[in-house]
Amino acid sequence: MPTLVNYSGDDEFYSGGSCYSSCPMDLGCLLSVGSNAYPPSKRARISSQFSFGGSNFEQEKKASIEVLPEECLFEIFRRLHGGKERITCASVSKKWLMLLSSIRPSEKEIPKSDDTEMTTGDEDQEETDGFLTRSLEGKKATDVRLAAIAVGTSSRGGLGKLSIRGSNSFRGVTNLGLSAVARGCSSLKALSLWNVSSIGDEGLIEIAKGCPLLEKLDLCQCPSISSKGLIAIAENCPNLTALNIVSCPQIGNEGLQAIGKSCSKLQSIAIRDCVLVGDHGVSSLLSSASSVLTKVKLQALNITDFSLAVIGHYGKAVTSLVLSGLQNVSERGFWVMGNAQALKSLISLTITSCRGTTDVSLEAIGKGCTNLKQMCLRKCCFVSDNGLLAFSKAVGSLESLQLEECNRVTQSGIIAALSNCGAKLRSLTLVKCMGIKDIVAGEPMSSPCTSLRSLSIRNCPGFGSASLAVVGKLCPQLRTVDLSGLYAMTDAGILSLLESLEDGLVKLNLSGCVNLTDEVAVAVARLHRETLEVLNLDGCRKITDASLEAIAANCLFLRELDVSKSGITDSGLAVLSCAEQVALQVLSVSGCSEVSNKSLSSLKRMGQSLLGLNLQHCTAISNRSVELLIESLWRCDILA
Fold this sequence. Notes:
20-stranded parallel β-sheet, 33% helix, flat, 24 helices
């Protein structure tokens, strides 16, 4: 059974001739699939005459079952009522395998109880609950493997999930292989097809007819599948709950309309980069499945304001909405979506690269989505401080705000948002927001954001020490801080933040802050010694052994430490390894040129607790030392 179902070698099945004639002295050569699936092979019995010629001899050819026409073999195979018998026959040759996989469930003859002997175990009983998962990728994705999966899984719990990614360039997956799955795997509930150009509507129609329990369908880069195949899914798979379509140029409005009309249980829909999909398909789908549809993702589609208006009017059950690259949607579309007042259940909203997202539309969204908890804006170039202020005042339950490449937003808008969302906001993320400059606010903040626990400001070059000092006073309850890529940050800004925090930091990421010195690391170890678990100082070139000494003396609960590309030496690691109270699980010293073979004993001492160690680009550590570490620290994953 493992050989047949989990087949991973070359597809060297015998295309013709009986296995008995091709390998008479060893019948196990094709049927070696384990003793749990087959009885022990008996020794081949040779009763035919031999003709001798010189030093060689030849067995006279006898009549073979292979001479029977396929119609006769088909009649024999469809009467096999046990899974073991079918697997045994499928192992004989490729011809038998493909013939067995072509038999539909309705064509199998179920023996009457009077003519059937009682079985002694459950091995031959077909279970079709769909317990098994199979995945084929690249050159392993062939029709032969799909046929083997179809035949082999039927008596082992039934196939529940199938994923095909890529295809063999010479013997790739086609409609024939997918049809074999449809005939033999009626329990299939999830199907994923990625980058499979040779599968078209014919294969998907067979799946629709043979797998009525299908719940999840994922189609990505399938250029030969059109709306015709999707219509068949809609008509035959009423249990469909999730549909994902990406870069399928032949799927259009007709397919989506059929899904909306027939699949009343659809809960999740994701459509991206399908040129034939427009307002008619999206609006029909959304309006028909409005009662149960909870997740909607629309990306790079030729839809207009009309589709967003439909979302605003019919999205009563939608909890997660992603809109990306909708170039034909204007400010009016987003404004109508917000003012339609139907998105009361919306919890998470992500908008990326949509020119229609402006200050006006953002305010409307805030007023219409009263239960919104997570908001993410990426590359929304027309959103400014005014829109952010209006949005933060309108939405009352926001817990997470993320802004990426929103270059019109400045420090004033961020502070205003923090002040207005102070009751529930727990996470703030700013990434590549070039409009933020290091300017101190003129007036002190009237209402601090005491609920904020996580602050992430990454690669915002204008965000400096003065801005961080203001944020520290505004948000005294921070537990996680990520300031990676802020190369203008100095010790003064970090120290001001560290001294403002009341509860103690758990995670601190200062990677790429090239101007920081040991003063910061010493302050972190001293002020947050009882809470700090993760510290990242990657790229902080001015960090030396003094920082490791402070960490060794103070940080009781530190589990992850990254001092890559810093100025630490063997002496610092020796001090760290002698600290009994420090039990690091992950340590990275990548690119530390002063760490050499002398640290071998120190690293071995720390290896009692280490699970991950990064020694990449440590040029002073020899390959032999790395080999010795790998032998000693067998539990630890070492990169070198």
